[in-house]
Amino acid sequence: MFDFLWPLFGRMHPLLVHLPIGILVFGILLCFLPKKENHDFLPTIRLAFLLGGVAALVAGLSGFLQYQFEGFAWEDVQIHLVGGISTALGSFWLYVQAKKSDRLDTKIKVSALGLGLVMTVTGHLGGTLTHGENYFTEVLPADFQSLLGAEIEPEKGPQLPEENWENAELYAEVIQPILNKNCKSCHNPRNKKGELDLSNLANLLKGGEDGLVLTAGDAEHSALFARLILPKEDEKHMPPSEKPQPSKEEIALIESWIKTGAKENQTLAEAGIPRKLIERFILKNQTPFYPITQMQPISADSLADLKSSGFFAEAVESGSGLLKITCTNFPEFQDKDWEKLAPVKRRLAYLDLGGTQMTDVLLDSLAGLPNLTVLKLNSTAISGNSLEKLAQLPNLKLLYLNKTQVSLSQIQALKASKSLQKVFAFDTPASTELPNAGNLNFPFLFEAGNYSLPKLPTDTIVY
Amino acid sequence: MNSLEKLFAELAVQKLQHQTRRHFLMDCVSKMGGLAMAPLLFGCEPGKLSKSTSGLQLSERDLNPLAPLPPPFLGKAKSIIYLHMAGAPSQLELFDYKPELAKYHDQACPESLLEGRKFAFIRGVPKMLGPQAKFSQHGESGAWVSDYLPHFAKVADEVAFLKAMHTDQFNHGPAQLFMQTGSARLGRPSLGSWVTYGLGTENQNLPGFVVLTSGGKTPDAGKSVWGSGFLPSVYQGVQCRSKGDPVLYLEDPSGMSRDLKKNVISAINQANQEDFETFGDPEILSRINQYEMAYRMQIEVPEVMNINDEPEYMHELYGTKSGEESFANNCLLARKLVEKGVRVVQLYDWGWDTHGTDHDGSIDMGLRNKCREIDRPMAALLLDLKQRGLLEETLVVWGGEFGRTPMQENREGKQMGFLGRDHHVDAFTMWMAGGGVKKGTSYGITDDFGFAGVDERVSVHDLHATILHLMGFDHEKFTYDFQGRPFRLTDVHGELIHSVLA
C-alpha cells in the first residue's frame, strides 16, 4: 500500500542532491580558508565530510530509485551514478583521513579539491539529464553554438505545395517562415537583440527598443522591411552583413505583405503574389527518379569487390543503397560475368553494359532486377528477339539500345511496360525503318535520332 | 647592403622600438591563452592528420585521387560540356533582341547610361549601335535567335537562355578567371576541377577533366582558367591538342615496345612501393597510380581523340574536317569524351573580341564569320547528344566572360573604321541545355537598350551554384579546407536559379 513511497523518494533526488553539495562545498572551503599552521577548523571539517558522505549516500539511493522507476536508459545515467557513488565514498575516505590526522596537511587539501571536481562533474551530468544537452548552449549566439559542435536544425524557410499554392496563408506559411530563417536566431524570446522578438506576430507588433517595426501599408516606413534594403555597409542594415542575407524574393515578399496591410489572415492570391516570387519555395512533388527502398548503403568491402572485378560501381547518391554500375573499363564483360553482379541485383538501379560481349541470354537475368531504372545496352550483340522480357521490369524508365540490331517491331513489344519513359535506338534497323512506319503510338518517347542539319546558302558565304 | 635590405632593417628596428613592456606582456598572455584554447575549440582535425601520416587507414582516394565518389545528392547531370567563347560574343547580335536600340542607332548615348561608369575602351560620349543582325522567333518556345546562327536556331527549344547575366570584371583575363574559378584573382580551382574533385572520373583510362582549344589562341587568362588552384594538381584540366598527337609524348618513341615500357613502369613502381613501405607517404601511392594511368591512357586516348573512325554523316552533321584544329572537331571530340565517361570537357574558342578595330573584329562581318564557325557544330552537338540519350545526363553550358555594349566603340574618342562594341559587364546572354535544365525557357529581362538587366538577373556565382546543383552538390556545403578555412566555388555568394531547373 505504501509502494508509492519508493518512486516518490526517487523523485526527490533532484532536491536531495543539493544537501551533500552544500555540505561538501562548505567542508572543502574550510580546508582552504584558514591561514597556515592554524588547524582549528579540523573538527568542523571532519563533521562536514561525515555529514556530506551520509547525505550523498541518501541522495544516491534516491537517484538509483529514480533511475529504476522513471525509465532512464543505463547508458545515459551510468557515469552520473558512478560519480555519485565516488562522491559518497570520497567523503567518507576524507573523513577517515581527517580523523587520523591532527593537522590540515596538503594531502587532505588536494583530496578535497579532487572531491570537489568529481562532485562538479557528477552534478553537471545530472543537470544534463534533467535539463537536456543544450541547456547552456541554447542561449548562445548561433555562431558560438556551431563552434562548440552543436547540430542546429536549420530553418527551412517557406515550403509551399505545387497545387493550390494560391490558397496558402501569406503570413503563417510564408512571412513567419522567412522571419524564422533570417531573423529568429537573434530575435527570439531567449535572445532578444534590440528588445525585439520576431518569433510570432503578437511580439512582432510590440516592436523593439526603437519602437514599432511595422506600419501596415507603408513598407518604406516599416523598419522590418526598410532595414533589409539599406546598403549592406550601413550600420542599421539587417541582418548584419556577416550573416546570411535574405534572397531578393524573400525581401519582395515581406514588402508585399506590409503593403497589402500586414494582415494575419490573407492568402497569397488575395495579396496578389505572383508565382515568380514563390517559385523557389514550391516543393516540387515529382516522383523520385529511382525507386524508394529501405536498403542500407552497400558495405565498403562489397563495393571494393565490384570495383576490383572491373566495374565502375558507386551509390547513385551519397547514402543510397542503390547502385550505378557501368562497364566503362570492362569491355571484356561476358554473360558468365553476371555472377559477379548477381549478389547485388536488388541494388542495381543504373546499369550500363554498353560495348560489352553480352548476348541475348543475359536478358533473362536483367528482366529480374526489381529496382533497375536505367539500362544501357548500346553497341552490344543483342538481337532484340527477347526484348519484350524487359517490359516486365517494374521500374525501368530509360532504355538505351543505340547501335544494336533491334527492329521496330521488337521495340513495339516494349509497349507492355508501364514504367518506360524513353527508349533510345539511334543507329539501329529500327531507326532506319521509322520514317516509313506511320503512326506508332508509343506510350514512351521513342528517340531514333538520324538528325541532320541541311546545308544552307549562308554556310559558304564569307564576309 | 642594398637599399631594399636597408629599408627592411629599418622597419624591423622601428617595430622593436614601438614594442613596449606592456605590449610584450599582453602578447605573452593573450597568445598563450590562444594556444591553449586552439585544440579545445577546433580539435585541429587530428583524425585527418593521422590518416595521411600513419599510412594505415588509406582510403581509395589516397591511392587514386580520381577514384569516383557518389554525388552528395542525386544530380541530374553526370558530365559537363562547357563551351567558352573567349573574347565575349555580342549578345545584341545573337540572342538579346532590342528593336528599340535600332531606333537610336548613330545617336549619342544618353548621359544617364554613362554616369559614374567606366568602360574598357569607350571614352567620352559614344554613339549607340543598333543590332546588326536580323532576329526572328524559333521553335515552340518562341526563342529569339538571330540570322547569325541559322542552324542553332533549329535547336533553340532544347536550351534555357539566361539573358540578364552580369559580372564585375571588364577585362578578358580577370573576367575569364571569374567565370571559370569564381574569383578574378589567380589561385582558385576552376569549376571543372571542383567537379572532378567531388565526383572523380568514371573512366579510369582517361583524365577526368579535358580541355580543348580552337581559334588559334588559348584564353587571355592562360591555363589558370582550367587550373586546380589549391586543390591537388591531379584535378586540373588536361589540355589535349585536337591536331597531331592529342597529348604530347603519349606515343612511345620508336624502338620502345609496349612490353619494354611495361617493364620500365613496373620497375619504377616497385621502387616506389618500397619507398612507400619505408616512409608511408600516400603521395607515393598516388604517383604509382599515375604511372599506371599514363600507361593505360596510351591505349585509350589516341582512340577516343581520333575522329577519323566516325561515319561520314557525322562529319557532315558537325562540319568536321579531320586534321585541323577547329571548334567543330572539338565539339565532336567532346561528345566522344563524354560518351567514354569523362566528367568535364571544356572547349575554349578564341576570337570573339569584336571591338571594330579591323575587319575580323567587326560586328557586321567578322562576327558573322566567327558565328558560322560555331553555329553548325554546337547545334550538331546538341542533336548528337540528344539522339544518343546523352543529353539526359550531360549539362551543356555556352557563354563568354562578359557581354558587349549597346554603344559603338570609340577608342581614344575617335570614330572607328569598323562597327564594334566594347566590353560590357551589366548584361549578357548565356545558355544551358541538357541534364536537369528546363528546356525552352528564357530567364532574365534587360532594358530596351540591352544595357542592364532589369529583372531576373543572374550573377556568375548564381550560375556556378546552379551548375553545381545540377551535378548533385549543394554549393554552400561543397568546400575544401585551405589555409585554415573552408573554401567554396561560390565563396559567400550564389543563389540557385530555380526557374531554369526542370
Characterize the structure shown:
- Chain A: Keywords: Heme, Iron, Membrane, Metal-binding, Transmembrane, Transmembrane helix.
- Chain A: This is Cytochrome c domain-containing protein.
- Chain A: Pfam families: DUF2231 (PF09990), LRR_8 (PF13855), PSCyt1 (PF07635).
- The complex is a heterodimer of chains A (463) and B (502).
- Helix content of chain A is 40%, strand content 6%.
- With 463 residues, chain A is of the alpha/beta class.
- The termini of chain A are far apart.
- Chain B is α/β, with parallel strands linked by helices.
- Chain B has 16 helices and 17 strands.
- Chain B has helices spanning 3-18, 21-42, 46-54, 60-63, 91-94, 99-103, 111-114, 150-153, 172-181, 191-199, 258-279, 282-304, 312-318, 327-339, 366-387, 460-470, and strands at residues 79-86, 135-138, 143-146, 159-166, 209-214, 238-239, 344-350, 394-399, 403-408, 421-424, 428-434, 441-443, 445-446, 453-455, 458-459, 479-482, 485-488.
- In chain B, α11 runs antiparallel to α12 and α14 packs parallel to α15 (366-387).
- The longest helix of chain B has 23 residues, at 282-304.
- The termini of chain B are far apart.
The portion of residues assigned to helices of chain A is: 25-40%
Share in β-strands of chain A: 5-15%
Percentage of residues in strands of chain B: 15-25%
**Main sheet summary of chain A:** 7 strands, mixed
Number of strand segments of chain A: 9
Biggest sheet of chain B, in brief? 9 strands, mixed
Write out the CATH superfamily name of the largest domain in chain A.
Ribonuclease Inhibitor
Pfam families (chain A): DUF2231, LRR_8, PSCyt1
Organism (chain A): Algoriphagus lacus
Transmembrane segments (chain A): 15-33, 45-65, 77-96, 108-127
InterPro entries (chain A): Cyt_c-like_dom, Cyt_c-like_dom_sf, Cyt_c_Planctomycete-type, DUF2231_TM, Leu-rich_rpt, LRR_dom_sf
